[in-house]
Every structure is written in C-alpha cells, then in structure tokens.
Description:
This protein is mainly alpha-helical. The chain has one domain (about 5-470): Orthogonal Bundle (Ribonucleotide Reductase, subunit A).
Amino acid sequence: xxxxxxxxxxxxxxxxxxxxxxxxxxxxxxxxxxxxxxxxxxxxxxxxxxxxxxxxxxxxxxxxxxxxxxxxxxxxxxxxxxxxxxxxxxxxxxxxxxxxxxxxxxxxxxxxxxxxxxxxxxxxxxxxxxxxxxxxxxxxxxxxxxxxxxxxxxxxxxxxxxxxxxxxxxxxxxxxxxxxxxxxxxxxxxxxxxxxxxxxxxxxxxxxxxxxxxxxxxxxxxxxxxxxxxxxxxxxxxxxxxxxxxxxxxxxxxxxxxxxxxxxxxxxxxxxxxxxxxxxxxxxxxxxxxxxxxxxxxxxxxxxxxxxxxxxxxxxxxxxxxxxxxxxxxxxxxxxxxxxxxxxxxxxxxxxxxxxxxxxxxxxxxxxxxxxxxxxxxxxxxxxxxxxxxxxxxxxxxxxxxxxxxxxxxxxxxxxxxxxxxxxxxxxxxxxxxxxxxxxxxxxxxxxxxxxxxxxxxxxxxxxxxxxxxxx
Length: 472
Ligand SMILES: [Fe+2]
Ligand SMILES: [Fe+2]
C-alpha cells in the first residue's frame, strides 16, 4: 500500500523521511489503541463513512463502505494562499511562524496536547454506544464521529512529531496511554472522563462538549503558529458535522418527547416509551454545566498570555473584532462579593476565556430556541426548555465556591442540595433512560424514544443499509 493510500495527506509526507518514519512507528500503536478502546464489537462491519482524502471540495468528503480499522486517517492542513501576518496580541502584524519559536515551545505544546487529548478521550467515552443505537442511521453517525475524532488525533500528533522533536514523540505516545475515566491515568480535562454510556448523553456531549471544541479550534485557527492554524481550520469542517449530530439528535428526542406527551391521556411521555421533557432538561443542565468549565477560568492570566503571545485569539478574531490588542478595554463580569452578586471590571485580556464563553453560550441558546420551536410544533404549549446560567453547578472558576439555581441566582447550599433532584439527573432518571437503550438495527426503523430524522445521509434514503453487519 502506498503512503498516500495508508496516510492520505497534503503535508508532503513522502519527502520527509524522518517524519514518515516517526508516524509509521506510531501508526501500529494507534491501531492497537483503536481496536482496544474504539467502538466495541463493530470492527469487522462495513460502515458507510466519509473519508477526507484531499482538501479540495471533491476530495474531503468521499463516501464509501469501509471497515473502521481500515479507515484512512489522513493529515490535512488547509492550504494557505499568500502570506499571513499574526492578527492579534503583542505580536500583531508580525509574520506568522512556520516553526515553533523557542520561548513559546512550552505553552504551545501544552495547548496542542490538551486539544489532542480530548480526541481519543471522546472515542473511549463512546465505545459501548453502538450496542444500543436507536437506528442504523444513528449508528453510522456515531462511527463517523468516532473515526473523525481519530483523525483529529492524527492531525495533532503530526504537529507534535514534526515540530516538537523528542518531547513531541513522547507526548504522542502518552496520548495513547491515558484512558477516559481511569483513576490512575485519566484524560486531562474532567468532562472527558464523564461516562457517556447512553444516547441522550451522547447527543448532549456532541451538542455541548464538542461545541466547546469548535470554539477552542476556532480560537486556534488564527494562531501565529501557522501549522496549528491550518490544521485546526481543516478540523473545523469535520467538527460541524459532530455538532449537527448532537443538536439534531437532541431535537429528535425532544420532538418524540413532545409528541408522546400530547398523545398520552395523562401527558405521560414515559408511558409512551419516550424520554419526558423534564428529564431532557436535567440532561441539558448537567452537560451544559460540565462543558462550560472547558473554557477555563473567568479571570485568566494564562489566557491573557496566550493572547499576548499570538498563540490563541478569540472566535472570529479578524472578522468580528476591531481592536486586536484588547489592551485598554474592560469586561464587566458578575462576581460574588459579601454574599451578593455584583459586577467587577476586569481588564479585557484577562477575560479572554469569558469572551469565548459568551460566544458559546449564545450559540447554545440558539439551539435551545430551535428545540422549543419543535415542542410548539408538536402542539405542546406549556413547556419550554431553558439553558441554565453559566454559574449553575460549577466546579471550577470563580462561581465554584458558591451555589446558584439554574437561573443564576445566588442561593445557599442547603437549598441547592434540596432542589438538586429537580435540576440534575437522579439515579432513577439514569436507570429509566438506560432502560430505553435497546438496539434498533432494522434499516429505516427508530427506537421508541426518538423521532426519525428528516432525511438520510448524503442523499441516501432513510432506510439505506448504513451499516452492513458481517456476522449476521
Ligand atoms: Fe475532534
Ligand atoms: Fe468532534
């Protein structure tokens, strides 16, 4: 098999023997990790997947049946036309770097490793979901997300191998050694150690947690370190699909919940085999509050340093902002002082994380509005889903030492403990959702708790055989 066949790429891998050897050494370890920790039980089946085989429009979304271990995980950087200058921070308008500047090496490595670690982590979190997929369509989408997270790992490992020498090689190995949820060698970020063993959590993860990824990638896509900027730009094209899987997955669950509520004489969606809307609300509360941590501290000198150094900007830094130095301005931040919620003025650069979180929250609110339209369309007029406040249920940052209700009001701990069962998933809720997780593998059929999607994948009908089981 030629190199282009086994590792499709546009980084001229063939002419860089050192890099090629490093990646060919890493590849079998990756495959071993995939067989161990990737989707359990479907490795021999034929999945209708898209593979990126080049960066142009005709090549980046090539669809065919493929066995997952034979997926061609490639390395692609969005091509650069002409020269680019750094667009923000203290180094604004300097030429971008093609190599890692010595003084930024530690910071950059930390940024890349933290991003990279989330990719295999999510595959590990989702490895048992195939066994209880609500349809073949969803099963295929799950595996598409999984192989693409595998490709994102490749993209980051390429950067480590090519630009970080021996440390990079060690980090690349360590990425295959940590395990989601393992007490001794957990994944770096906490959300990526949460269990995702039923599909409502999977959709919430893809909606909320992966969406954090979009904003992190976006803020790196204008990085002064050009190979990182170009790698993350290409990753974003795939990420959009993951977010859609999450948003529409929740939407279809909401649709079924609302329709079942209307159809039942006691308004009892559970009696109709659906997940009721109050339960969905609890999942939103849990997953949103967990994902929102990923943006880091509200007041952060690290983020200010990354910004100043030209490593990590804001979402759509060039398009949306006029002042790319962010030096003189202030950010008005709600804080708790003397037992009351008031606001404090923070230098803008120390509030970079919070600005990114603002964008994210607005995006999540948009999705919740869509879900509420779905509820209304089903004829249910007295229920609306709500995005909780970013202060609710936090374990990190300035709100972690206090307790808030989902609307963001400061409350005492006793009240929180008393109301927790109404706001967050209980064991009974989890057991109920888990009890619905029965596989539904007949082409075109859906499990009882989810509505059918409006259309199939890439022009294929809904009852297309998206997964061909080998054993059956
Ligand atoms: Fe990813
Ligand atoms: Fe993703």
